[in-house]
Structure to design on (326 residues):
């Protein structure tokens, strides 16, 4: 658990036992970053007067973004994406407790197979800017805005990362000879799943921040434009995901059209073969029963029947050619 006191003089790390004394001062605010949930983090939230439902929401995993408002506090959950394997996108949860003089960011819980450092990307970037003096937030709402903007950028980066694979996939579909359709089709649907996951995260975050902007309780007066801007950022990510998804769906439809066309051509050729061989087979059956006998073969009749078969096959092939079947 890392704690920083932010004032006009800059940001500096502090100890847990200094927190309450600094909050009792006239200016400045504190940022508490909790990488993973612990008993100490729960005790700190209780000391800050957080509601029991808020603490429970921080303790357990939230699969969709949420917003809860309490007197003097707003609780928000957002998700940053991490691209996994075979079309899976990890949801990296970040809980924010925005108060008048304190901001608490709680990471996780996360998949046990992941390293904890992947959850700290957004907060580490904001902390580096804060420590270097490249940003001077006026309060917890400003800092929460910076952290959440970093989450929106992570979601946008996911969409761009997926989009980089689409031109190569489109080229492969257009030049494919359909030798292994199952493998290529599976790849396309896994990519579509990644896009839909990113799109869902952005859409849900947009709804949460649009509600916060409408509630008017994100921060002091004059700060609601930040909530509206965050809603707009997530809406733009959702729009990017929609555009890339539509492009991918068009590629999938092109691929499916090529497969269906190939199957139709194959069926037409099979129909030609059946049309040519069926009358020949019927005539051969009759010929075998009534013309060829055990004692001798009627060569003249055999020659006539074979010529008739060839003529029938030729006429059927010519007709099929005129129909464009082959």
């Amino acid at each position: 658990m890392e704690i920083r006191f932010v004032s006009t003089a800059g940001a500096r790390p502090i100890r847990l036992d200094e927190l309450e004394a600094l909050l009792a001062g006239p200016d400045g605010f504190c940022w508490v970053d909790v990488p993973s949930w612990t008993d100490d983090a729960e005790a700190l939230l209780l000391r800050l007067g957080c509601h029991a439902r808020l603490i429970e929401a921080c303790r357990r995993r939230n699969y969709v973004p949420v917003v809860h408002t309490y007197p003097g506090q707003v609780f928000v959950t957002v998700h940053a994406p991490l691209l996994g394997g075979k079309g899976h996108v990890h949801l990296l949860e970040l809980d924010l407790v925005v108060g008048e003089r304190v901001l608490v960011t709680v990471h996780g819980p996360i998949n046990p197979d992941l390293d904890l450092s992947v959850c700290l990307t957004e907060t580490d970037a904001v902390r580096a800017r804060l420590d270097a003096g490249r940003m001077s937030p006026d309060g917890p709402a400003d800092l929460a805005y910076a952290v959440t903007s970093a989450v929106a950028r992570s979601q946008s980066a996911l969409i761009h990362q997926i989009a980089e694979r689409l031109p190569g996939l489109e080229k492969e579909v257009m030049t494919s000879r359909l030798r292994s359709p199952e493998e290529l089709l599976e790849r396309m649907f896994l990519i579509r799943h990644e896009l839909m996951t990113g799109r869902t995260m952005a859409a849900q975050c947009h709804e949460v921040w649009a509600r916060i902007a409408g509630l008017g309780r994100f921060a002091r007066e004059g700060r609601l434009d930040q909530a509206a801007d965050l809603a707009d950022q997530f809406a733009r990510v959702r729009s990017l995901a929609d555009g890339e998804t539509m492009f991918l769906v068009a590629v999938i439809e092109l691929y499916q059209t090529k497969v269906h066309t190939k199957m139709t051509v194959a069926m037409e050729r099979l129909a030609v073969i059946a049309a040519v061989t069926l009358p020949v087979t019927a005539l051969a059956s009759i010929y075998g029963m009534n013309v060829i006998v055990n004692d001798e073969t009627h060569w003249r009749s055999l020659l006539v029947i074979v010529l008739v078969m060839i003529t029938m096959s030729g006429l059927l092939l010519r007709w099929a050619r005129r129909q464009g079947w082959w």
